[in-house]
Amino acid sequence: MKWMWIWITLALAVILWGACPVLSDWAMADYAEPEFLDSVVRSEGDLLLDQIEQFYKEHGHYPESLAKAGIQVPKQRFGGWKYERRSESTITLSIGKYSRNQFEMVWTTERGWELDR
C-alpha cells in the first residue's frame, strides 16, 4: 500500500510539472507585450477614434455612448474598450486595467494616447 501512494504522488508530480508551462501561459493570458499594445491594440483604438471623430464632424458633438452612435466595439481580452464623454468636446477612450493587465492605455482629446505600464 505504501508503494502505491509513492507512485500516485510521483505521477501527480510529473503531471503538474508538465502542466507548468500551460499554467504559466494561462496565468499571463491578460498580459501584453509593448509591441502588441502599440501595433494591435492601438490600431484598434484608432479605428474606434476614426468612427467617433466622424460622428463629431456630422453632429458637432461627441456621442453620449458608442452604442447610441452605432459604433461596434470589438471584443478584447483586456476587458474591452471604455468610452466616456466628459463634455460635448472632450472624451476618453481606454482599455486595460493596471491591476489586472499590467497596463492601461488611454486616449484623451487633450493629450492623445498615453500608455501606463
Would you summarize the structure shown here?
Helix content is 48%, strand content 19%. The protein is α+β, with helices and mostly antiparallel strands. A hairpin with a 3-residue loop joins strand 3 and strand 4.
What does this protein structure show overall?
- With 117 residues, the chain is an alpha+beta fold.
- The chain has two domains: 1-30; 31-116.
- The protein contains three helices and four strands.
- It has a four-stranded antiparallel sheet with strand order 1-2-3-4, covered by helices on one side.
- A hairpin with a 2-residue loop joins strand 1 and strand 2.
- The longest helix is centred in the first third of the chain and has 26 residues, at 2-27.
- The radius of gyration is 22 Å and the shape is elongated.
- It starts with a helix and ends with a strand.
- Mean pLDDT is 80; it is low at 22-30.
Spell out the key features of this protein.
117 residues; 2 domains; four-stranded antiparallel β-sheet; alpha+beta
Largest sheet: 4 strands, antiparallel
Task: List the domain count as a whole number.
Answer: 2
Strand content: 15-25%
Q: Indicate the percent of residues in helices.
A: 40-55%
Tell me the number of strands: 4
Shape: elongated
Task: Tell me the Rg in angstroms.
Answer: 22 Å
Distance between the termini: 53 Å
Uncertain runs with pLDDT below 50, 5 residues or more? 22-30
Structural class: alpha+beta
Draw up the topology in text:
Layout: H1 2-27, H2 34-59, E1 82-87, E2 90-95, H3 98-101, E3 104-108, E4 112-116
